[in-house]
Design a protein that fits this description.
With 393 residues, the protein is α/β, with parallel strands linked by helices. The chain is built from 14 helices and 15 strands. The structure holds pyridoxal-5'-phosphate.
Protein backbone atom coordinates (compact mmCIF):
# COMPACT_ATOMS: atom_id res chain seq x y z
CA UNK A 1 0.00 0.00 0.00
CA UNK A 2 1.26 3.45 -0.79
CA UNK A 3 1.78 6.11 1.85
CA UNK A 4 -1.33 7.84 0.57
CA UNK A 5 -3.68 5.06 1.66
CA UNK A 6 -6.52 6.48 3.74
CA UNK A 7 -7.63 4.15 6.49
CA UNK A 8 -11.21 3.97 7.64
CA UNK A 9 -11.42 4.25 11.41
CA UNK A 10 -15.20 4.73 11.24
CA UNK A 11 -15.87 1.12 10.27
CA UNK A 12 -17.79 -0.81 12.91
CA UNK A 13 -16.58 -4.38 13.16
CA UNK A 14 -18.43 -7.06 15.07
CA UNK A 15 -15.94 -8.58 17.52
CA UNK A 16 -18.39 -10.84 19.31
CA UNK A 17 -17.64 -14.57 19.48
CA UNK A 18 -13.93 -14.08 18.77
CA UNK A 19 -12.87 -14.87 22.37
CA UNK A 20 -12.35 -11.15 22.82
CA UNK A 21 -11.77 -10.15 26.45
CA UNK A 22 -13.42 -6.81 25.69
CA UNK A 23 -16.58 -8.26 24.15
CA UNK A 24 -17.00 -11.87 25.13
CA UNK A 25 -16.38 -11.47 28.88
CA UNK A 26 -19.00 -8.76 29.40
CA UNK A 27 -21.57 -11.00 31.10
CA UNK A 28 -18.93 -12.40 33.40
CA UNK A 29 -17.37 -9.06 34.31
CA UNK A 30 -20.29 -6.66 34.24
CA UNK A 31 -23.30 -8.99 34.59
CA UNK A 32 -24.65 -7.71 31.28
CA UNK A 33 -23.79 -9.02 27.81
CA UNK A 34 -24.70 -5.87 25.92
CA UNK A 35 -22.86 -3.07 27.73
CA UNK A 36 -20.78 -0.93 25.39
CA UNK A 37 -17.22 -1.92 26.35
CA UNK A 38 -15.07 1.17 26.93
CA UNK A 39 -12.85 -0.27 29.66
CA UNK A 40 -9.93 -2.50 28.65
CA UNK A 41 -7.10 -0.92 26.60
CA UNK A 42 -7.85 -2.63 23.30
CA UNK A 43 -9.01 -0.59 20.30
CA UNK A 44 -11.86 -1.50 17.93
CA UNK A 45 -9.98 -0.65 14.73
CA UNK A 46 -8.93 -3.15 12.12
CA UNK A 47 -5.31 -4.22 12.21
CA UNK A 48 -3.62 -2.38 9.32
CA UNK A 49 -3.45 -4.29 6.03
CA UNK A 50 0.37 -4.49 5.92
CA UNK A 51 0.43 -6.33 9.25
CA UNK A 52 -2.34 -8.73 8.24
CA UNK A 53 -0.51 -9.34 4.98
CA UNK A 54 2.79 -10.15 6.75
CA UNK A 55 1.02 -12.68 8.96
CA UNK A 56 -0.89 -14.14 6.01
CA UNK A 57 2.29 -14.53 4.02
CA UNK A 58 3.95 -16.43 6.86
CA UNK A 59 0.97 -18.78 7.20
CA UNK A 60 1.48 -19.79 3.58
CA UNK A 61 4.63 -21.66 4.52
CA UNK A 62 2.43 -23.97 6.60
CA UNK A 63 5.13 -24.99 9.08
CA UNK A 64 5.31 -23.15 12.39
CA UNK A 65 8.19 -24.73 14.27
CA UNK A 66 10.39 -23.15 16.96
CA UNK A 67 11.61 -19.75 15.95
CA UNK A 68 14.10 -17.10 17.01
CA UNK A 69 14.35 -13.35 16.62
CA UNK A 70 15.80 -12.32 13.29
CA UNK A 71 18.07 -9.39 12.47
CA UNK A 72 14.93 -7.85 11.02
CA UNK A 73 13.22 -7.90 14.42
CA UNK A 74 15.98 -5.83 16.04
CA UNK A 75 16.47 -3.55 13.02
CA UNK A 76 12.78 -2.68 12.86
CA UNK A 77 12.85 -1.68 16.55
CA UNK A 78 16.10 0.28 16.16
CA UNK A 79 14.77 2.21 13.16
CA UNK A 80 11.35 2.87 14.66
CA UNK A 81 12.74 4.24 17.92
CA UNK A 82 15.26 6.38 16.08
CA UNK A 83 12.66 7.77 13.72
CA UNK A 84 9.76 8.28 16.15
CA UNK A 85 11.63 9.17 19.33
CA UNK A 86 15.12 10.22 18.26
CA UNK A 87 16.82 7.62 20.46
CA UNK A 88 19.75 5.66 19.05
CA UNK A 89 19.88 2.11 20.36
CA UNK A 90 21.96 -0.94 19.47
CA UNK A 91 21.04 -4.50 18.64
CA UNK A 92 22.82 -5.84 21.74
CA UNK A 93 20.54 -3.77 24.00
CA UNK A 94 17.37 -5.48 22.79
CA UNK A 95 15.63 -8.46 24.32
CA UNK A 96 12.16 -9.90 24.08
CA UNK A 97 9.14 -10.40 26.30
CA UNK A 98 5.77 -12.04 25.65
CA UNK A 99 4.13 -8.83 26.93
CA UNK A 100 5.09 -5.78 28.94
CA UNK A 101 3.42 -7.03 32.13
CA UNK A 102 5.42 -10.28 32.03
CA UNK A 103 8.54 -8.12 31.51
CA UNK A 104 7.73 -5.99 34.56
CA UNK A 105 7.38 -9.13 36.67
CA UNK A 106 10.58 -10.70 35.34
CA UNK A 107 12.48 -7.44 35.89
CA UNK A 108 11.27 -7.26 39.49
CA UNK A 109 12.28 -10.88 40.06
CA UNK A 110 15.62 -10.71 38.30
CA UNK A 111 16.85 -7.31 39.49
CA UNK A 112 15.55 -7.06 43.06
CA UNK A 113 15.35 -9.35 46.09
CA UNK A 114 12.35 -10.40 48.21
CA UNK A 115 11.67 -7.68 50.76
CA UNK A 116 13.20 -4.91 48.63
CA UNK A 117 11.12 -1.78 48.26
CA UNK A 118 9.79 -0.68 44.88
CA UNK A 119 8.19 2.68 44.11
CA UNK A 120 4.99 3.06 42.09
CA UNK A 121 3.17 6.30 41.26
CA UNK A 122 -0.59 5.88 41.62
CA UNK A 123 -3.13 6.24 40.26
CA UNK A 124 -1.35 3.90 37.84
CA UNK A 125 -1.88 0.88 35.60
CA UNK A 126 -2.79 -1.67 38.27
CA UNK A 127 -0.55 -4.61 37.19
CA UNK A 128 2.30 -2.46 38.56
CA UNK A 129 0.98 -3.26 42.06
CA UNK A 130 0.90 -6.98 41.30
CA UNK A 131 4.44 -6.90 39.90
CA UNK A 132 5.61 -5.64 43.30
CA UNK A 133 3.39 -7.49 45.74
CA UNK A 134 2.92 -10.83 43.97
CA UNK A 135 6.69 -11.14 43.89
CA UNK A 136 7.13 -10.54 47.62
CA UNK A 137 8.53 -7.02 47.31
CA UNK A 138 7.30 -4.04 49.34
CA UNK A 139 5.33 -1.34 47.57
CA UNK A 140 6.12 2.30 48.25
CA UNK A 141 3.60 4.76 46.85
CA UNK A 142 4.50 8.16 45.48
CA UNK A 143 1.06 9.44 44.55
CA UNK A 144 0.84 11.83 41.61
CA UNK A 145 -0.70 15.20 42.42
CA UNK A 146 -3.41 16.87 40.43
CA UNK A 147 -2.49 20.53 40.01
CA UNK A 148 -4.90 22.75 38.07
CA UNK A 149 -6.31 19.81 36.13
CA UNK A 150 -2.92 18.29 35.23
CA UNK A 151 -1.04 15.53 37.01
CA UNK A 152 2.47 16.13 38.32
CA UNK A 153 5.09 14.04 40.05
CA UNK A 154 5.38 14.93 43.74
CA UNK A 155 9.18 15.07 43.80
CA UNK A 156 9.37 16.25 47.40
CA UNK A 157 7.26 13.30 48.54
CA UNK A 158 9.30 10.97 46.31
CA UNK A 159 12.54 11.94 48.03
CA UNK A 160 10.88 11.65 51.44
CA UNK A 161 9.88 7.99 50.92
CA UNK A 162 13.27 6.83 49.67
CA UNK A 163 15.53 4.85 51.98
CA UNK A 164 18.31 2.33 51.32
CA UNK A 165 15.79 -0.53 50.90
CA UNK A 166 14.25 1.12 47.83
CA UNK A 167 15.78 -0.58 44.79
CA UNK A 168 13.49 0.14 41.87
CA UNK A 169 10.98 2.59 40.44
CA UNK A 170 8.22 1.27 38.17
CA UNK A 171 7.75 4.28 35.97
CA UNK A 172 4.87 4.70 33.52
CA UNK A 173 5.85 6.98 30.63
CA UNK A 174 3.56 8.20 29.15
CA UNK A 175 1.37 7.67 32.14
CA UNK A 176 -1.72 5.46 32.17
CA UNK A 177 -4.31 6.49 33.32
CA UNK A 178 -3.28 10.09 34.09
CA UNK A 179 -2.30 10.61 30.47
CA UNK A 180 0.82 12.67 31.10
CA UNK A 181 3.77 12.82 28.73
CA UNK A 182 6.66 13.57 31.06
CA UNK A 183 8.81 16.49 30.02
CA UNK A 184 12.56 16.29 29.63
CA UNK A 185 12.96 18.30 32.85
CA UNK A 186 10.71 15.91 34.79
CA UNK A 187 12.64 12.93 33.41
CA UNK A 188 15.94 14.53 34.34
CA UNK A 189 14.69 15.03 37.88
CA UNK A 190 13.48 11.43 38.14
CA UNK A 191 16.80 10.23 36.73
CA UNK A 192 18.85 12.35 39.13
CA UNK A 193 16.90 11.17 42.17
CA UNK A 194 17.27 7.52 41.12
CA UNK A 195 20.98 7.89 40.32
CA UNK A 196 21.62 9.56 43.66
CA UNK A 197 19.84 6.77 45.53
CA UNK A 198 20.94 3.68 43.52
CA UNK A 199 17.44 3.00 42.29
CA UNK A 200 16.83 1.19 39.01
CA UNK A 201 14.19 2.62 36.69
CA UNK A 202 11.87 0.27 34.83
CA UNK A 203 10.33 2.58 32.26
CA UNK A 204 7.10 1.20 30.78
CA UNK A 205 6.85 3.08 27.50
CA UNK A 206 4.11 0.99 25.89
CA UNK A 207 2.09 4.16 25.17
CA UNK A 208 5.01 6.16 23.78
CA UNK A 209 3.80 6.10 20.16
CA UNK A 210 0.38 7.45 21.13
CA UNK A 211 1.33 11.01 21.99
CA UNK A 212 -0.65 14.09 20.92
CA UNK A 213 0.91 17.28 19.62
CA UNK A 214 2.52 19.45 20.86
CA UNK A 215 3.69 16.93 23.47
CA UNK A 216 6.81 14.92 22.78
CA UNK A 217 7.84 11.63 24.30
CA UNK A 218 11.42 11.30 25.48
CA UNK A 219 12.56 7.76 26.29
CA UNK A 220 13.77 7.90 29.90
CA UNK A 221 17.01 6.14 28.94
CA UNK A 222 17.71 8.73 26.23
CA UNK A 223 18.06 11.57 28.73
CA UNK A 224 21.69 10.85 29.61
CA UNK A 225 24.28 8.08 29.51
CA UNK A 226 24.17 7.80 33.31
CA UNK A 227 20.39 7.45 33.33
CA UNK A 228 20.52 4.86 30.54
CA UNK A 229 22.81 2.75 32.74
CA UNK A 230 20.11 2.38 35.40
CA UNK A 231 17.08 2.18 33.09
CA UNK A 232 15.32 -0.78 31.51
CA UNK A 233 12.77 0.24 28.88
CA UNK A 234 9.71 -1.78 27.90
CA UNK A 235 8.03 -1.11 24.56
CA UNK A 236 5.59 -2.94 22.31
CA UNK A 237 3.58 -2.47 19.13
CA UNK A 238 0.56 -3.89 20.97
CA UNK A 239 -1.19 -0.65 22.02
CA UNK A 240 -0.07 1.36 18.99
CA UNK A 241 -1.23 -1.16 16.39
CA UNK A 242 -3.78 -3.05 18.49
CA UNK A 243 -1.90 -6.35 18.59
CA UNK A 244 -2.24 -7.28 22.28
CA UNK A 245 -3.34 -10.83 21.44
CA UNK A 246 -0.01 -11.51 19.74
CA UNK A 247 1.99 -11.12 22.96
CA UNK A 248 5.16 -9.65 21.52
CA UNK A 249 7.10 -6.83 23.14
CA UNK A 250 10.67 -5.71 23.62
CA UNK A 251 12.92 -4.93 26.56
CA UNK A 252 15.76 -2.50 25.91
CA UNK A 253 18.71 -1.95 28.21
CA UNK A 254 22.14 -0.54 27.57
CA UNK A 255 23.54 -1.93 30.82
CA UNK A 256 24.85 -5.41 29.92
CA UNK A 257 24.78 -6.73 33.48
CA UNK A 258 21.12 -5.85 33.99
CA UNK A 259 20.11 -7.26 30.62
CA UNK A 260 22.04 -10.46 31.32
CA UNK A 261 20.11 -11.00 34.55
CA UNK A 262 16.81 -10.35 32.77
CA UNK A 263 17.72 -12.73 29.93
CA UNK A 264 18.67 -15.50 32.35
CA UNK A 265 15.16 -15.45 33.81
CA UNK A 266 13.63 -15.36 30.37
CA UNK A 267 15.64 -18.38 29.31
CA UNK A 268 15.12 -20.30 32.56
CA UNK A 269 11.36 -19.98 32.04
CA UNK A 270 11.71 -20.90 28.36
CA UNK A 271 10.12 -17.62 27.35
CA UNK A 272 12.74 -16.27 25.01
CA UNK A 273 11.52 -18.17 21.94
CA UNK A 274 8.58 -15.97 21.12
CA UNK A 275 5.79 -16.25 18.63
CA UNK A 276 6.25 -16.46 14.87
CA UNK A 277 3.24 -14.29 14.09
CA UNK A 278 4.08 -11.77 16.79
CA UNK A 279 7.52 -11.29 15.25
CA UNK A 280 6.07 -10.86 11.75
CA UNK A 281 3.56 -8.36 13.07
CA UNK A 282 6.12 -6.34 15.04
CA UNK A 283 8.43 -6.06 12.05
CA UNK A 284 5.66 -5.06 9.66
CA UNK A 285 4.28 -2.54 12.16
CA UNK A 286 7.58 -0.85 12.83
CA UNK A 287 8.79 -0.95 9.21
CA UNK A 288 5.59 0.21 7.56
CA UNK A 289 3.44 1.73 10.31
CA UNK A 290 4.13 5.48 10.10
CA UNK A 291 1.27 6.41 7.78
CA UNK A 292 -1.33 4.36 9.62
CA UNK A 293 -0.17 5.63 13.01
CA UNK A 294 -0.26 9.27 11.92
CA UNK A 295 -3.85 8.81 10.75
CA UNK A 296 -4.77 6.95 13.93
CA UNK A 297 -3.42 9.83 16.03
CA UNK A 298 -5.51 12.29 14.04
CA UNK A 299 -8.61 10.15 14.56
CA UNK A 300 -7.96 9.75 18.29
CA UNK A 301 -7.40 13.48 18.65
CA UNK A 302 -10.72 14.18 16.97
CA UNK A 303 -12.41 11.66 19.29
CA UNK A 304 -10.85 13.43 22.26
CA UNK A 305 -12.04 16.83 21.03
CA UNK A 306 -15.49 15.36 20.52
CA UNK A 307 -15.66 14.01 24.09
CA UNK A 308 -14.26 17.23 25.52
CA UNK A 309 -16.79 19.45 23.71
CA UNK A 310 -19.67 17.11 24.45
CA UNK A 311 -18.92 16.93 28.17
CA UNK A 312 -18.47 20.68 28.52
CA UNK A 313 -21.73 21.37 26.74
CA UNK A 314 -23.87 18.54 28.04
CA UNK A 315 -22.45 16.94 31.18
CA UNK A 316 -20.24 19.66 32.69
CA UNK A 317 -20.01 17.87 36.03
CA UNK A 318 -17.91 15.14 34.39
CA UNK A 319 -14.51 16.67 33.81
CA UNK A 320 -11.97 15.40 31.30
CA UNK A 321 -8.34 15.45 32.36
CA UNK A 322 -6.75 16.82 29.19
CA UNK A 323 -4.98 13.85 27.64
CA UNK A 324 -1.42 14.24 26.39
CA UNK A 325 -1.16 10.61 25.29
CA UNK A 326 -2.96 7.24 25.03
CA UNK A 327 -6.48 6.40 23.87
CA UNK A 328 -7.54 6.20 27.51
CA UNK A 329 -9.38 9.17 28.94
CA UNK A 330 -9.35 9.88 32.66
CA UNK A 331 -12.68 11.30 33.68
CA UNK A 332 -13.33 13.07 36.96
CA UNK A 333 -16.83 12.21 38.27
CA UNK A 334 -16.32 13.76 41.71
CA UNK A 335 -18.46 16.84 41.16
CA UNK A 336 -21.52 14.61 40.65
CA UNK A 337 -21.29 13.73 44.36
CA UNK A 338 -22.51 10.19 43.78
CA UNK A 339 -21.43 7.08 45.64
CA UNK A 340 -19.41 4.40 43.83
CA UNK A 341 -22.47 2.16 43.94
CA UNK A 342 -24.65 4.85 42.38
CA UNK A 343 -22.13 5.51 39.61
CA UNK A 344 -21.83 1.81 38.85
CA UNK A 345 -25.61 1.45 38.67
CA UNK A 346 -25.99 4.45 36.36
CA UNK A 347 -23.14 3.32 34.12
CA UNK A 348 -23.80 -0.39 33.79
CA UNK A 349 -27.51 -0.84 34.40
CA UNK A 350 -28.89 2.43 33.07
CA UNK A 351 -26.49 3.84 30.48
CA UNK A 352 -25.24 0.39 29.43
CA UNK A 353 -21.63 1.56 29.34
CA UNK A 354 -18.67 -0.29 30.85
CA UNK A 355 -15.85 2.02 32.01
CA UNK A 356 -12.91 1.17 34.25
CA UNK A 357 -13.57 2.21 37.87
CA UNK A 358 -10.71 4.52 38.87
CA UNK A 359 -10.31 2.78 42.24
CA UNK A 360 -8.55 -0.12 40.53
CA UNK A 361 -5.66 2.24 39.71
CA UNK A 362 -4.97 2.73 43.42
CA UNK A 363 -4.59 5.86 45.53
CA UNK A 364 -6.11 8.92 43.87
CA UNK A 365 -8.36 6.83 41.61
CA UNK A 366 -11.52 7.19 43.69
CA UNK A 367 -14.16 9.27 41.91
CA UNK A 368 -12.58 8.76 38.48
CA UNK A 369 -13.44 6.49 35.57
CA UNK A 370 -11.19 5.50 32.66
CA UNK A 371 -12.74 5.47 29.20
CA UNK A 372 -11.19 3.91 26.08
CA UNK A 373 -11.93 6.08 23.07
CA UNK A 374 -10.15 3.84 20.54
CA UNK A 375 -13.41 3.19 18.72
CA UNK A 376 -15.44 4.56 15.80
CA UNK A 377 -16.99 7.96 16.50
CA UNK A 378 -20.49 6.55 16.11
CA UNK A 379 -19.92 4.31 19.14
CA UNK A 380 -18.52 7.20 21.14
CA UNK A 381 -21.53 9.32 20.28
CA UNK A 382 -23.88 6.63 21.52
CA UNK A 383 -21.93 6.31 24.77
CA UNK A 384 -22.01 10.06 25.40
CA UNK A 385 -25.72 10.33 24.68
CA UNK A 386 -26.40 7.47 27.12
CA UNK A 387 -24.22 9.14 29.76
CA UNK A 388 -26.02 12.45 29.28
CA UNK A 389 -29.41 10.82 29.83
CA UNK A 390 -28.35 9.17 33.10
CA UNK A 391 -25.94 11.72 34.57
CA UNK A 392 -27.93 14.91 34.08
CA UNK A 393 -31.25 13.84 35.58
C1 LIG B 1 1.14 1.03 31.02
C2 LIG B 1 0.82 -0.32 30.47
N1 LIG B 1 1.73 -1.30 30.52
C3 LIG B 1 1.47 -2.54 30.04
C4 LIG B 1 0.24 -2.83 29.48
C5 LIG B 1 -0.06 -4.21 28.98
O1 LIG B 1 1.03 -4.77 28.38
P1 LIG B 1 0.99 -6.25 27.81
O2 LIG B 1 -0.36 -6.52 27.27
O3 LIG B 1 2.07 -6.22 26.78
O4 LIG B 1 1.35 -7.14 28.95
C6 LIG B 1 -0.74 -1.84 29.42
C7 LIG B 1 -2.07 -2.15 28.87
O5 LIG B 1 -2.98 -1.38 28.93
C8 LIG B 1 -0.45 -0.56 29.92
O6 LIG B 1 -1.34 0.44 29.88
Amino acid sequence: MSKLTRYNFDEIINREKTNSVKYDLRSKLFGKADVIPMWVADMDFKTPDFIVEAIRKRTEHEIFGYTFRSEGFCNSIINWIQKRHGWTIEKEWISFSPGVVPALNILVQSLTKPGDKIIVQPPVYFPFFGAVENNGRKMVENQLKLVNGRYEIDFEHLESVIDTDVKMLLFCSPHNPCSRVWTKEELEKIGDICLKNNILIVSDEIHSDLVFKPNKHFPTASISKQISDITITCIAPSKTFNLAGLHTSAVICRNKELLKKYNKFLEDFHLSGGNIFGFEALEAAYNQGDGWLNQLLEYLQSNINFVDDYLQQNIPKIKLIKPEATFLLWLDFRELKLTNKEIKKLLIEKAGVALFDGRIFGKGGEGFQRMNIGCPKEVLEKVLINLKVEFTK
